[in-house]
Amino acid sequence: MANFQDKKATLFRLKWVEWIFVNLPFVCYLVLLGVIYISNAHASEKAVRKTEVLKQEVKDIRWRALNLKQEVMQGSIQSQIEEKVKDSGLKPSTTPPYRIVADKVD
């Protein structure tokens, strides 16, 4: 009885191995598809991570640009300019500027 079971198991293994070798091109094709699928998943994850990093960088640069713009606007106020040039002896003009009008030449 044990001899029959061994022969049956051996025959089953042989059929299984034979089936694998017969279908080896298809198995290789499935393995190749799996490798491509995994590679594509990794590439897309890498692209998503890079996109997130770039979004954060754009956000930081936009914040710095707005901050610099605010500093420039704050620094161009007349009282701020007077404070900056006070040490050099410059004072604001007390007389209004003159308007120059040119005659039309026809």
List descriptors.
single chain, mainly alpha, 76% helix, 106 residues
Please write out the topology.
Blueprint: H1 2-22, H2 24-75, H3 78-85
Poorly predicted spans: none
Helix content: over 70%
Number of strands: 0
- Overall average pLDDT: 86
Task: Supply the helix-strand structural class.
Answer: mainly alpha
Radius of gyration computed on alpha carbons? 41 Å
The backbone outline, from C-alpha atoms, is rod-shaped
Strand content: under 5%
Largest sheet: none
H/E series? HHH
Integer tally of domains: 1
Count of DSSP H/I helices:
3
Distance between the termini: 127 Å
Walkthrough of the structure:
This protein has 106 residues and is an all-alpha fold. The chain has one domain. Helices cover 76% and strands 0% of the residues. The chain has three helices and no strands. The longest helix has 52 residues, at 24-75. The radius of gyration is 41 Å and the shape is rod-shaped.
Précis, in short:
This protein has 106 residues and is mostly helical. Helices cover 76% and strands 0% of the residues.
